[in-house]
Design a protein that fits this description.
Elements lengths: L17 E7 L14 H13 L4 E4 L3 H11 L5 E4 L8 H4 L2 E3 L8 E6 L2 H4 L5 H4 L1 H9 L2 E8 L6 E2 L4 E5 H4 L10 H12 L3 E5 L17 E3 L4 E6 L8 H12 L10 E6 L5 E2 L2 E2 L8 E3 L2 E6 L4 H12 L4 E6 L10 H4 E5 L5
Parallel strand pairs: 1-2, 2-3, 5-6, 8-9, 11-12, 16-17
Antiparallel strand pairs: 1-18, 4-5, 7-8, 10-11, 13-14, 15-16
């Protein structure tokens, strides 16, 4: 079978121009037990912020979910609601990864296997069916990849370099029996990855994803990486995040040039009902000319925004409230999936 990379497809970086953003309207009360009421207004602010700069597609399957999305988002000319059912709102993880073609091929997307973070939260059958339904809506060619993989577990620079974590992609609850070489081969064949950087620090306190990269380190251009760093040596995140920071400082890109590694602060520990929340400023989302940064009612909120503004001078960087969202163990990047412009140029 001919694979995407072999016939000219590429995986663009998130900062490259988008055709749209895909989201799923939150409706699963078990994701935010006892704290669901603030979730929809915070989600609505996020939807409207993105809709100012690009089209937004919202999965809102079923009468009740569709009614809720319409009520909170309103009749926005840049927002389209789709009657596509989901089990949960974390579209980054179960949604497709969109590819870009060279106009010799139709636009395409990757349909990964999905098992809700290692089978932690059944049922997940509706989420697993989302890429196929998005392919039908968009008319995109669909490739089914053999790997169980969530979108939040991989971070690319658009030039063949990928960041991920050992704890997630090598976890036997995803792909038992797969080794690093087999996984890297799939990433090469499907996404065009030429070099994979494996972080070893493990997952952030409170995280349930086994170490998604979008909580830990993110590219903002082809050689610049922001990485979550904890300043308090007594915090349980200090050691693992320092391990990631040091590893990235000693890692090179595909041309053996050093990466530009910028520390991004962590907020003070956040709790709800005695549960440690995985609050991280790395969970920002890049839309067309825009960067949306989660805010956690913390003194470090403004510092995180200021750092990203200094690194993204051609992009409007805004902070939006996310403390209630992260009680569901994710924030803006976890909720969103970019659809790049379909063709190069």
């Amino acid at each position: 079978m001919t694979l995407p990379h072999a016939i000219g497809y590429r995986w663009p970086a998130e900062w490259e121009p988008h055709a749209a953003t895909w989201l799923a309207w939150p409706h699963n009360l078990e994701t935010w037990p006892g704290h669901f009421d603030p979730v929809r207004p915070q989600m609505a602010r996020f939807v409207r912020a993105i809709a100012e700069v690009e089209p937004v597609h919202v999965l809102a399957g079923g009468r009740a979910v569709m009614h809720s999305a319409r009520l909170w988002v309103g009749d926005h000319p840049n927002v389209t609601l789709h009657d596509i059912a989901t089990n949960d709102a974390w579209c980054r993880d179960y949604g497709p990864v969109f590819l870009q073609s060279n106009e010799q091929q139709p636009p395409a997307l990757i349909d990964w296997q999905y098992n809700a973070w290692g089978g932690k939260y059944p049922p997940f059958d509706q989420d697993n069916a989302v890429p196929r339904q998005i392919a039908q809506v968009t008319g995109y060619r669909r490739w089914q990849a053999p790997l169980v993989l969530e979108g939040g577990s991989i971070e690319g620079n658009g030039a063949g370099l990928l960041l991920t974590t050992e704890q997630c992609l090598l976890n036997p609850n995803r792909n038992p029996g797969w080794d690093r070489q087999q996984i890297e081969q799939v990433l090469h064949d499907v996404l065009g990855v030429q070099k994979t950087i494996w972080l070893t620090g493990g997952q952030m306190a409170g995280d349930d994803t086994d170490g998604h990269i979008d909580q830990l380190a993110r590219f903002i251009d082809s050689r610049t990486v922001v990485v979550a760093v904890e300043d308090d040596p007594n915090d349980e995140n200090y050691g693992p995040l320092q391990e990631n920071y040091v590893l990235l400082q000693t890692t090179t890109d595909r041309q053996d040039a050093s990466l530009h590694v910028v520390p991004l602060p962590m907020p003070r520990p956040k709790f709800r009902d005695d549960q440690r929340l995985p609050a991280s400023y790395c969970n920002f989302y890049l839309a067309n000319g825009l960067c949306v940064v989660p805010q956690f009612d913390d003194p470090a909120d403004e510092r995180a925004v200021a750092i990203l503004r200094s690194l993204l001078p051609d992009r409007r960087v805004i902070g939006l409230p996310a403390l209630d969202l992260v009680f569901g163990l994710g924030a803006f990047h976890c909720l969103s999936q970019q659809q790049p412009r379909p063709f190069r140029g």
